Amino acid sequence: MQVVVAGQGYVGLPLAVRAAEVGHRVVGYDVDPHRVQQLAAGQSYVGDVDSSRLGAVLASGAYTATADAAALAGFDIAVITVPTPLRDGVPDLTYIESCARTLGEHLRPSATVVLESTSYPGTTEELLLPILEEVSGLKGGEDFLAGFSPERIGNKRWSFDTPKLVSGIDAKSLDVIKGFYDGIFQTTVPVSGTKVAELAKLLENTFRFVNISMINEMAMLAAALGVNIWEAIDAAATKPFGFTRFTPGPGIGGHCLPVDPMFLSWKAQQDLGVPFRFAELAADVNGRMPDYVVRRVVEGLGKRGMPVRGSRVLLLGLTYKFNATDLRNSPSARVAELLIDLGAEVRGAEPNIPNDAKLDVPRVDVTPDEVAAADAVVLLMDHPRFDLPMIEKCATYVLDCRNRLSGPNVETL
Description:
Blueprint: E1 2-6, H1 12-21, E2 25-29, H2 33-40, H3 51-60, E3 63-66, E4 77-80, E5 86-87, E6 90-91, H4 94-104, E7 112-115, H5 123-136, E8 145-148, E9 164-166, H6 171-182, E10 188-190, H7 194-225, H8 229-236, H9 260-272, H10 277-287, H11 289-303, E11 312-316, H12 331-341, E12 345-349, H13 368-373, E13 376-379, H14 388-394, E14 398-400, E15 410-412
Parallel strand pairs: 1-2, 1-4, 2-3, 4-7, 7-8, 9-10, 11-12, 11-13, 13-14, 14-15
Antiparallel strand pairs: 5-6
Helix pairs in contact: 4-5, 7-9, 7-10, 11-12
């Protein structure tokens, strides 16, 4: 089929390349000309897609990248994978709206449009569908098909082995959308409607968001009580049922967990006039974790007779999660900001981000001399490229937010 994947970011590019690899003719559409230039040159900026894979589908002609909307004409199926950020707690769906208008201009009878971008229940039928109908002059379910299939990226172990939820605005839409994804994912899971699929995505991420928040708050309480939270987690995890292991950290970041639950919170307030208390409480707890990390650093330096002002602090791992290549909403930015405000000399090491990328602090390599020169080392993310035994040996004081280090110079979160 002629496939359009609108949005060539962390969700859209892996999908576009995979669709090309299984035999579709794919147009990767993005409004960012710099991105398109990189893609056309075979340079991937997404960790889940090697440049070699991108180059192969480019060379075969199965994939092209473009910022020209005219290239979308004639598509059989279009998948929307554009961002849906929050602006001051309010969902910003302008990217979906703009993309829907662009696709609507090229929508033809029997074509299909699938939304993958995360949003509140009702977005597909109440926002996307009316725009497509208005611009195209066609009727959804009669002239063209549509549905929602939430993205589930972010786990390299599973990738396209992750079961894929699919839904449609009617039975025919569901059948076509399921058929498309059947050729890309090992397993597809149809649900009865788009609102169910939209809510399921929010449920998945809210589950993680709330549980990470709970364990973060418990870690703060455990430290105050003098109890090792990590040993308690290990002990609880021996129970074979009724417990799911979550571990504390410096906070939550990325494009999903800090954002998605608040879509449902906003929708509940707007339509029902009631708060989504668990999500709001979780957001409050996780928003305070960087402050707690900094407080622990200040206390750790104080025990060693050093004020934070003028101290040299080395932050290790600035991405929002383990081995990621993404800085979006990372708690490391807030940790660095607070330490700098307190007068610390802050440096950062992030081997997963290209050297030409801008960081919030001066970039350094994790050498024995750099580690030894720091008055405090904060392990925010335990990337595989960090030499942990060397850090244990050379650092005079470490706050370990990941429970990966040991020794008399190490404190765990």
